[in-house]
Amino acid sequence: MNALTKNKITDNLINFHFYSGMRMDSIPENERLELESQAKSIKVSRKSVLYTEGEAPKGIYVLLSGKIKVSQLNVDGSVQIFFIYSTGDLFGHRPLLCNGKHPVTAVALEDCEFLFVEKDHFMRVLESSPRLSNLFLQSVSHEFTVLVNRINIFAQKSIKERLAYFLLILNHKYKLPGQVADAAEIKVNRSDLASYTGTSLENLVRTLKDFKNKNFIRTDGKSIYINDFDSLYSLTGV
Amino acid sequence: MNALTKNKITDNLINFHFYSGMRMDSIPENERLELESQAKSIKVSRKSVLYTEGEAPKGIYVLLSGKIKVSQLNVDGSVQIFFIYSTGDLFGHRPLLCNGKHPVTAVALEDCEFLFVEKDHFMRVLESSPRLSNLFLQSVSHEFTVLVNRINIFAQKSIKERLAYFLLILNHKYKLPGQVADAAEIKVNRSDLASYTGTSLENLVRTLKDFKNKNFIRTDGKSIYINDFDSLYSLTGV
DNA sequence: CGCCGTATTGAGCGCTCTCAACGAGGGTGG
DNA sequence: CCACCCTCGTTGAGAGCGCTCAATACGGCG
Fold first, then answer.
1. A191 Cβ contacts chain C strand, under 7 Å
2. Closest CA relative to residue A170, chosen from A188, A156, A153, A154
3. What are the tens digits of pLDDT across the range A181-200?
4. pTM for the whole structure
5. Would you tell me which residues 33-72 of chain B have a C-beta closer than 8 angstroms to some C-beta of chain A?
6. Which one, of B97, B38, B30, lies nearest residue B62 by Cα?
7. N or C end: fewer C-beta atoms under 10 angstroms in chain A?
8. Nearest Cα residue in chain B from A152
9. Of residues A152, A17, A197, A145, the one with CA closest to residue B198
């Protein structure tokens, strides 16, 4: 893949489909220090539940290490995963901003460490800083576009197209800090990957196998690595 | 249907799935007057295009009469409709709030009349009013939940479930101001309804027929009326 | 070694799509 | 007024995708 193509993939996906929302390092120093001054550092182990859908939000979270999955459980037992957060991502703020309940459940995919800022402190800092408030407004407005684009993906694309799409997104999420290689080690189990892609476990496995046969990806145990970004990207049709 | 059930439907759908976003009448009077002072009143005929995906946003819109559909066109020619705006809805603001392009295309479904506030004026009013800015932050954060719920619908539900869901949403959108009757005249053509539900035209027609046979809905020419809110609601599984 | 959770594969069914034809209704020109 | 056309809606048939159920393989751990 040449540099031009690569940039196009990166631009399009990151800007309009991927975009992790708010990150701690995009917050101005003053406000960040103010938030951090009252933040608790918390460690949880794999499978821990940070919050559950329907709960009142207690504060905001900044992930320092590990991965968090954010999902909904349907009445028929099916699970839809919406996001996977990685280091630096700030989340859990949106229900606070609109006085709502958590619409989703957040669970640790690995052992995690995060900062937790309590609701009252967060809201105080937010109210005292129009700059921060505008930053959130910008961020959430951008995420609106990201979600609209994702609705289109789910409504109009086949499993194959969707899986290609989500593998590219996960590749970003699983890049290690400072990693130069394009391909990351994607460590999501088949069941979660199926819930993320919106398909059954068996169908997910079959589609992965298809991608492997075409040499788009390779696997090592349960881990997935992308070989051919270009082909996956053109498959997505975005 | 008893009153309790009806309220549950209304509450759940309106709050978490429907929610039309910002409305002019939820803006504090001062700011509203300031916005309106520079607003142009514009009339367009059916099928007129207000803006196209990829375009730079020029301002915000407040619908006074008529209906607007908001959609994306895919490379394979398929169309996904995301929203249908009706009287009072304020839209087109989100790309302004995050310095982005329009992610979607807005087209008049009927002859429409709307207010248009130019970008510069809107941004000036917004910057001068933390209260307005916070209102938008609240609104867009709430819409985040709405869109997340909708992703779940598209990723996990069948056409039948999705159509039941969107018919209930459209029923709200097509209620006339002050209408007491529950059932509105839903005047969306089959093709648009298919694009909204995320299915093919033929399949949409077949599912409508199924609903008609079960007496969930009735049709009069091209218009659709809901008979049985309860059954449709329980079909959606939300 | 046996157990348990996860991954893979197979078979068959049903939903949804596409292609194709037909019908209904409104508008236009002869 | 009628004939024609154009758009939109409806129906049928058949193919293929994606689902469920069921069985098998694999790997870590007690």
1. yes
2. A188
3. 889 999 999 999 999 999 99
4. 0.95
5. 72
6. B38
7. N
8. B80
9. A152
